[in-house]
Structure formats: structure tokens, C-alpha cells
Amino acid sequence: MWKPVDTRFYAKRLPVAIAAIDDGGEANYIRTVLEQFNTVMLFHAIGTPGDFLQVIGQGEENAPAYLIISAHGDKGGIIFGEYIEEIDVSSLHDEVMLPETIGQAINLPGTVVINTACSAGVEEAGKAFMQGNLKAYIAADIDVSGEAAALFIMHFFHRLIKTESLEEAWQHAAAYDEESRAYRLYVQDGFYQLTPEGQCSKTAY
What we know:
Mean pLDDT: 94
Number of strands: 11
Strand content: 15-25%
Structural class: alpha/beta
Low-confidence stretches: none
Shape: globular
Number of helices: 6
Largest sheet: 8 strands, mixed
Radius of gyration: 16 Å
Distance between the termini: 28 Å
């Protein structure tokens, strides 16, 4: 697992990586906020589908403890858009990387992945990401605003650094408002979500 020297400082810093797909505006904002939360950031500026596949296929030695995917999404997939002929887009279907492709490529043992893409938390996508032996996968199952995604991540890491409890940090962040409650927490045997009343429920696969 990726362990920068900052993890051994007297005031230890939490290692977080960001994979920025598209213009990176959201990702840069999240990066700036999290750097105020005692984290050390690794920024991946994704230019092609192949770049992204390398990031999610790094394997145990280089996998980050936390990976934020900043992207646009559709029906559980990640939107990449159009490319010139020289770029390999065989991993895309109508400019979108589908959950099936991600499930075949991902290899991030022990990583917690947070995906800001719209609808990236549907069950098909959650199961696909968890094929990479993740510790957990967090994403919204509906379309949410960019502001809501940034707020969820801010609340999640603010509580995580204080409590070191993944489940408590997720529940705290998901309880903020209606859009935040769309964020599901996937683990190996199912997923957690908050009801409209704020109650936590688990659905098994």
C-alpha cells in the first residue's frame, strides 16, 4: 500500500489519492479542502481511459488507502467522452466505461474508493468495484450535484480523521441532507444506506 513519508510524521497524515477525469475543477477543490484536514494528497490527472485503468489496477503494493474518483457518470459507468483516433478507446462503450469493464480491471486491495460520478453507487457498479478486493466503495445511487459530492467528502474525511471509523464517518456524512443520503457504503457482503428518516439499513448481495 502507498505509504508516503508523511504517514510517519509526528503529526501523521492520511494518504489520499484523487483520479481527476474531465476538467479537474471539482477534483482540485476537493484536494484543497482535504489538504487542510491533515492529509497528504496524490493527484492523478487522467487523460485517457488507459490512464484510469492503470490507476485502478495498481495492485497491493501501490494502492492508496483512499482513492477519490472525480468524474461524470451515467447509469453506473464513468463518462470519458470522445478521443482522437490514436487513443485506445476499446474499454469504452459509447464514450462510457461500464461497470463490467471496471470490474475486470480493478485491483486495489484494502483501498476505500469514493466515486463522485452520478449514479456510480447503483448495485451493478458497487459490485464491480468490490471485485478489486477493496476495503469499501462509496458512491451515490442517483444523480447528485457537484456541491453535494464535495460536501459529502468534506464531512466524511473530517469525521474519519477524528474517529478513524469508516462506518461512522460514512453515516455522519450521509446524514447531512437528502442528496448526501444517496451515498451508499459497499462492503464485501452487501451495502449500507440511510433511509429518508436517517436510519441505517443493510442490503445483502
